[in-house]
RNA polymerase subunit sigma-24 (Agromyces bauzanensis), 113 residues
Amino acid sequence: MHEFRDAAEHGDAERLASLLDPGVAVVVVAGDREHPAIRVVRGIHDALTLLMHGMAAKPGLVIDERSVNAQTGLILSRDDEPIAAMTVDFTGGLISMVWIRLRPEKLRHWNEV
């Protein structure tokens, strides 16, 4: 997870691509309970575009490696408020699935101690 985070944050598309399975899928879940919005992108090119845009260094964006649903994951925060949670699944040592949850109201408890 550290290498994935580092490559994305530093805009290293070549290194990030080397971590992804050719059939990688990125599932982004947003919206609310009554109107969930799910977007799925497939393949290295589309996954890279989405990940590099969402995880690129930006003022105020902090990416922390944390436990998410009992597995190693990432919490993206802005102004001390969590804005996304990410986890990944592996197949044969490569990232085959990236799960991204964009529901700030569901993420608030990750900011509490």
In short: The chain is about 25% helix and 50% strand.
